[in-house]
């Protein structure tokens, strides 16, 4: 059956406001290292509740800078823990900094980190997954430094007691990171940010993102000094301008994502779907970066992926456990985490993004149903 059009698992929303915001910077005197960076950082603080934001070239760069900053405070080797169900950057950042890495386990349905499986460690990177916030308050006592990987959860909320907090607010972590890749909640092309309520840490991150070079009061006006070993992890001003424009649409983006996710949950309660798939119940506090279904028979997941692709429906697997990648097997040996392996075995992310129309969603649901009906033939 030839597809009439292709529906990706996710995509960015760019409109004329975004284009004009970028063009305005391109027409200006500064397209990098100008005023848009600080403005974007202020918008990020307002959106998350964090006191400080440091915009950088990617979410990966934010993770690397934080691990570097903590490593500089502790010259001896540190220990670290993260989730195995994540993009590899959550783990890579620690290995880049010489951290001894271990993995906790996750819930087999939600992919969320299980606090009881977290060993004590110097650095913990709990991953907020698919739009839901990691159990930050429950795991914080396990780590000296807690960094929320909030790449999936900008705009999400989480409860501690009867109070709601925003993902990235850093009330139950020492820092958090965001990603502005095109499939995330807001897009700046590429880009990311580190968030914290620690002013000294924020200042250290700003130095590290630009080669650890600072301007000095002594000497001529041009004089600068490198006071450490840093990186070139700066964001451009036109990327920041795009990020500012996108942030102003975040409430609408979240509304669209939640409406689509709720509709998936309602329609997929039918017996045809529940016989073959399971999924986490609807969560009004999630930012719904992804909508993940799980095939009860994991052996048919890859067949479903191929079937849907042939009919113009893009899907993706989020994620293969990090420790199963060749590099990690060679570095850490064989690791087993039952929850992560059960989650990975049958998971498939189906299309969800703000620009998706109900007609597109209906087509996706119809094609999933057609695949499931084919199993009965």
Explain what this protein looks like in three dimensions.
By secondary structure, the protein is α/β, with parallel strands linked by helices. The chain folds into 2 domains: 16-247, Type I PLP-dependent aspartate aminotransferase-like (Major domain) (Aspartate Aminotransferase, domain 2, 3-Layer(aba) Sandwich), CATH 3.40.640.10; 250-374, Aspartate Aminotransferase, domain 1, CATH 3.90.1150.10. Helices cover 36% and strands 16% of the residues. The protein has helices spanning 16-26, 36-48, 59-73, 89-96, 136-139, 199-208, 237-247, 250-267, 271-274, 301-310, 326-332, 338-346, 358-374, and strands at residues 52-56, 79-82, 100-103, 121-125, 143-149, 157-160, 163-166, 175-179, 192-196, 213-215, 224-226, 277-278, 291-295, 347-350. The strands form 4 sheets. Strands 1-9-8-5-4-2-3 form a 7-stranded mixed β-sheet. It has a 3-stranded antiparallel β-sheet with strand order 12-13-14. A two-stranded antiparallel ribbon has the order 6-7. Helix 4 (89-96) links the parallel strand 2 (79-82) and strand 3 (100-103). The chain is globular, with a radius of gyration of 21 Å. The mean pLDDT is 96.
Mean pLDDT: 96
Number of structural domains = 2
Measured between the Cα atoms of the first and last residue, the distance is: 17 Å
Question: What is the CATH architecture annotation of the largest domain?
Answer: 3-Layer(aba) Sandwich
CATH topology name of the largest domain, in short, is Aspartate Aminotransferase, domain 2
CATH class term of the largest domain: Alpha Beta
Number of helices: 13
Strand content: 15-25%
CATH homologous superfamily caption of the largest domain? Type I PLP-dependent aspartate aminotransferase-like (Major domain)
Q: How would you spell out the order of helices and strands?
A: HHEHEHEEHEEEEEHEEHHHEEHHHEH
Helix content: 25-40%
């Amino acid at each position: 059956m030839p597809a009439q059009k292709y529906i990706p698992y996710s995509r960015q929303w760019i409109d004329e406001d975004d284009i004009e915001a970028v063009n305005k910077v391109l027409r200006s005197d500064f397209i990098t290292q100008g005023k848009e960076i600080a403005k974007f950082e202020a918008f990020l603080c307002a959106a998350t509740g964090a006191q400080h934001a440091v915009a950088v070239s990617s979410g990966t760069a934010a993770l690397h800078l934080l691990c570097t900053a903590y490593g500089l405070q502790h010259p001896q080797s540190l220990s670290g823990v993260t989730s195995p169900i994540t993009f590899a950057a959550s783990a890579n950042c620690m290995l880049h900094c010489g951290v001894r890495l271990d993995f906790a386990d996750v819930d087999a349905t939600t992919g969320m980190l299980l606090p009881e499986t977290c060993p004590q460690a110097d650095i913990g990177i709990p991953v907020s997954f698919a739009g839901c916030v990691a159990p930050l308050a429950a795991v914080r006592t396990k780590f000296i430094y807690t960094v929320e990987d909030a790449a999936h959860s900008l705009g999400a909320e989480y409860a501690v007691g009867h109070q709601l907090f925003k993902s990235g607010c850093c009330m139950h972590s020492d820092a958090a990171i965001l990603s502005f890749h095109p499939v995330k909640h807001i897009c700046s092309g590429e880009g990311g940010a580190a968030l914290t309520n620690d002013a000294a840490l924020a200042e250290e991150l700003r130095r590290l993102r630009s080669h650890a070079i600072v301007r000095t009061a002594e000497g001529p006006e041009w004089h600068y000094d490198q006071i450490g070993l840093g990186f070139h992890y700066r964001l451009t001003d036109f990327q920041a301008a795009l990020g500012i424009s996108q942030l102003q649409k975040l409430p609408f983006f979240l509304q669209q994502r939640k409406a689509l996710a709720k509709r998936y949950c309602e329609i997929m309660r039918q017996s045809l779907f529940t016989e073959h798939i399971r999924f986490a119940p609807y969560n009004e506090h999630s930012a719904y970066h992804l909508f993940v279904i799980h095939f009860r028979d994991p052996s048919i997941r890859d067949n479903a992926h191929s079937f849907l692709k042939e009919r113009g429906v893009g899907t993706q697997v989020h994620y293969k456990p990090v420790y199963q990648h060749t590099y990690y097997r060679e570095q850490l040996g064989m690791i087993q985490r039952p929850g992560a392996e059960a989650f990975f075995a049958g998971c498939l992310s189906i299309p969800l993004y703000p620009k998706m129309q109900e007609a597109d969603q209906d087509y996706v649901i119809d094609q999933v149903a057609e695949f499931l009906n084919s199993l009965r033939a």
